[in-house]
Hints:
The complex is a heterodimer of chains A (about 290) and B (about 775).
Chain A: E1 7-9, H1 14-24, E2 28-31, H2 37-42, E3 50-53, E4 63-66, E5 69-73, H3 78-83, H4 85-90, H5 92-99, H6 104-109, H7 112-118, H8 124-132, E6 135-140, E7 143-148, H9 149-152, E8 153-155, E9 158-159, E10 166-173, E11 178-187, E12 194-205, E13 208-217, E14 224-225, H10 227-233, H11 240-253, H12 264-288
Parallel strand pairs in A: 1-3, 2-3
Antiparallel strand pairs in A: 4-5, 5-10, 6-7, 6-10, 8-9, 11-12, 12-13, 13-14
Helix pairs in contact in A: 10-11, 11-12
Chain B: H1 20-24, E1 40-46, E2 52-58, H2 60-63, E3 68-73, H3 74-79, E4 84-86, E5 92-94, E6 100-101, E7 107-113, H4 116-123, E8 127-132, H5 139-142, E9 161-168, H6 170-178, E10 182-190, E11 202-207, E12 214-218, H7 223-234, E13 241-244, H8 260-272, E14 276-279, H9 282-288, E15 295-303, E16 309-319, E17 348-356, H10 373-391, H11 395-402, E18 411-412, E19 418-419, H12 424-435, H13 437-449, E20 453-462, E21 474-475, E22 478-479, E23 482-488, E24 494-498, H14 507-519, E25 526-530, H15 547-574, E26 581-584, E27 587-590, E28 593-599, H16 600-609, E29 620-625, E30 634-643, E31 650-660, H17 667-686, E32 691-692, E33 698-699, E34 718-721, H18 739-756, H19 770-779
Parallel strand pairs in B: 1-14, 12-13, 16-17, 24-25, 31-34
Antiparallel strand pairs in B: 1-7, 2-6, 2-8, 3-7, 4-5, 9-17, 10-15, 11-12, 11-14, 15-16, 18-19, 20-30, 21-22, 23-24, 23-29, 26-27, 27-28, 30-31, 32-33
Helix pairs in contact in B: 10-18, 14-15, 15-16, 17-18
Amino acid sequence: MFPAAFDYRAPASLQEALSILKERGDDAKVMAGGQSLIPLLKLRFARPELVVDIGRLPSMNNVMRRGGHTAIGALVRHVDVENSKELASSAPMMVEAARWISDPLVRNRGTLAGSVCHADPAGDWGSVMLAFGAEIVARSLSGERVLRADEFFEGPFATVLKPDEVVTEVRIPLANGRAGGAYLKLERKVGDFATVAVAVQVQLEGEKVSRAGIGLTAVGPRNIKATDAERSLMGQEPTDRVIAEAARLAAEAAEPKDDVRGSAAYKKDVVRVFVQRGLKTAIGRAREVKS
Amino acid sequence: MATQTHMHGRIGESIKRKEDGRFIRGKGNYLDDIELPGMLHMAILRSPHAHARIKSVDTAAASGMPGVIAVVTGELMAQHKLAWMPTLSYDTQAVLATDKVRFQGQEVAAVIADTKYQAEDARDAIVVEYDVLPAVTSPQQAKEAGATLIRDDKENQKDNHIYHWEAGDQATTQAAFAKADKVVRLHTFYPRCHPAPLETCGCIADVNGATGKATVYMTSQAPHAIRTVFALVTGLPEQNIRVISPDIGGGFGNKVPVYPGYVVATAASLLIGRPVKWVEDRSENLISTGFARDFHMTGDLALDKNGKMLALRVHLDSDNGAFFADAQPTKFKAGLFHIVTGSYDIPTAHVTADGYYTNKAPGGVAYRCSFRVTEASYLIERLVSNAAIELGMDQAELRMKNFIQPEQFPYRSATGWVYDSGDYPKAMNVALEQLGYAELRKDVGARRQKGEVTGIGVASFTEVVGAGHGADFDILGLRMFDSAELRVHPTGKALLRMGTKSQGQGHETTFAQIVTEELGIPAADVAVEEGDTDTAPYGLGTYASRSTPVAGAATAMVARKLREKARTIAAHLLEAAEEDLEWDTGRFYVKGSPDKAKTIQEIAFAAYTNVPEGMEAGLEGVHYYDPPNMTYPFGTYAVVVDVDKGTGQVKVRRVVAVDDCGVRINPMIVEGQIHGGLAEGYGIAFMQLITFDAEGNCIGSNFMDYLLPTAWETPQFELGETVTPSPHHPLGAKGVGESPTVGSPAAYVNAVIDALSPYGVTNIDMPVTSDKVWAALRAAGVTE
């Protein structure tokens, strides 16, 4: 298995990368960790004329708290998220989700931002971004755009990014008060894409839900934000009945298809089961946070 | 002599594997490690369609691409009468398609180029026009009236039926069913899966134009048989063909057949005059090479009201793909499937089998299995557990009640097998005790009260391995003996060459240990060589758990021959009568005078320096062993599972595996084999599936879709053993590599069905995936 021939550039600075993309962005693919792109190249499913390897760009591999959010640089790898003390304290659900991504080999190379840009509807990070209400920062020679996660994903492998743009960081808002999350994933084996996965992130004020984010993986043309389910929780005390109703609404938001991983009905029901379990776990975790 | 010399590596010692040093250090020598001067590379163009007529093949653009030496088409092969080749089951198979393509992934053309990269680029530039035909993807479709005829190349083939085959006695079976109190039926599909060895298949063909010698390096489990087949196919004189199987990275049956790529590469090397390497990629291996199983089985078990088995009736439809290329003994069209009465004393049985062509890859191989014994064992063990559920009996008790008893051996089964030895109740008892079955049953009851979904599965398999006696077992007429040649050097070190070929089984250690046991040469001093047909004695190869039963026996026998010559030399050296000498592993001594002794090393030196008058010098010999019977390993496996009601996920909590493979030569290697097979059994039961859509597109053509278990999925295994030696094998050994793949799938599935039995579920076909379990739970009204 060999890829079709392509040009390769490894710019030394962000400025250089953006210049290359300005010129040849339409025919280029940006590569960070390469864990999605290289398999596609190898199978000749992707045949870009140019691969722009941003893997050597300096100072984009940090996780830092800044203002009201935690900023994750474009070259932060899944394994870095897994091991991040900063995220373990500010957004522990990120750490839980990172452990579900593929296998250690992929996590050692692949990047969070690269995965978000790849926009695979079965990708895990998309749902996590939706559940947190994250922001994605894109740069081009024309300037910087800050994009909301729920506006970022357009469809399978499609985002609002322009051909001359590079994502430089992802921003996870800091929780206000007691927050908790959970990432649940059903996979057929380690390293497999999700059959279904669910990201849940909630915030409590007193005993009531003050914010709820629910992202669904692999049950539609893109990662899905279960908006009705989120709304149904707002201002409510999360009783079993309220949670069951939210889970039902989340399952309704899912648009899965029959495939080798199971029927659409199966996947919808697993969404229901996972949202129910995830909400209970997340609320339990939020309650444990000292306010 | 009061004490025995300590001899490192005798039978029963778990010495470390001699071959592992080079493998662990990355110093193995696999096919793709071999580079020859001037070597070219081959890439194969494969059919995107399951069934289509070829209108045209345009190679013009490809031929002009950089580095391309030749583009080979079916038409070109036909000019050399090599467009078709014989299969191991007396059918024909296309080497490169000339008329139609009959499965997705079939070989259509090949590019030979300076580099592999260039070959693949040029392959993409070949333009083939197809007229797509309807695809037949199951035996059910294949036998429909008006089904598309797949094999229109065969003159007398008017439908898609390949063979009908029967065993047992129809009349007595019918009579027994008429008197039965209870008949339990199970219809189950053992789906297609693939052996998927870590190293894919490939070859390097190196035909020397000056000498006419064809040296073919090949990932083959059966190099000698391949040499003969090559001679028959190509017409090359057999002494001019040398097949070398280097280190092999797993085979599991996948590397027994002859594949079109081997023939094309050899023909190309012959025509071009340079070595040609061809190595499959993963997808090519999964879509085009020997698959396994694909049996649609219906079993009826007749019992009396007390649970005593009266008769068994089985029908199976076999999906053989586009060419009947099963690798199996000639006499048996459905392999050894008629071992299906298993471990039970069933008075009469009748087995019928029909094989069908479909638009799927050919080459049903015994995937870690002795020619379809896996399917047979699965059917009977699932059927017996279902019978227990239907009768309201405990599944272990029903088995106990019907086991062939130890005193019944040798036991003639209703389908004609003569089981050599066994103690099934003992293996069952050891397993149940190790599991704590009685306590666990209570625990399962208590958990179910709380709404948990949990169960225990048991399977008590009997295998039939070690093919086999020459009068009954042959492949293309080649009798299934095997061989060992032992040469002891003057310094007492030895070289053992065999007709088998290890693919990871540890032959270099196990067979050295047989020499240690029989001749007293430490295992470290015995080099074992296999796989080079110019140096090794002829043998049928390694598959069907036959190496220890057949070639292992040959090794013992040749060592014994040498020991007798050694006795004569020792008598000469000690100036004693031969009958006055006693053998104490590693030395002969004079009865009553243990200090008057000669070691095997001293004797070996004398064999080259000081032999008795009239004796030939040297200490070497060869033995061709024709086994008098098959061996019948057996065991009981027990599995405990917990089912997630919300998602249908099955978690295997425990696996207890008690194996009886007769005498264990290297227990560590045996346990390693069992671990590997239990992991593969898990994969087959829960994960591994090669399936096809309605157009005949293969789903499962890469490791994202064809799921092999990793360490993460694989459960923990608890092993146990009993030892019932084979009475006819010189060492009492039976073979073990395949027992766990044969026995465990039924144990895993039985556990799931036991867990779901309170809800009326009686069957889920493999792989038992979470969505199928979920569907069964929801259909029974169980939810979270």
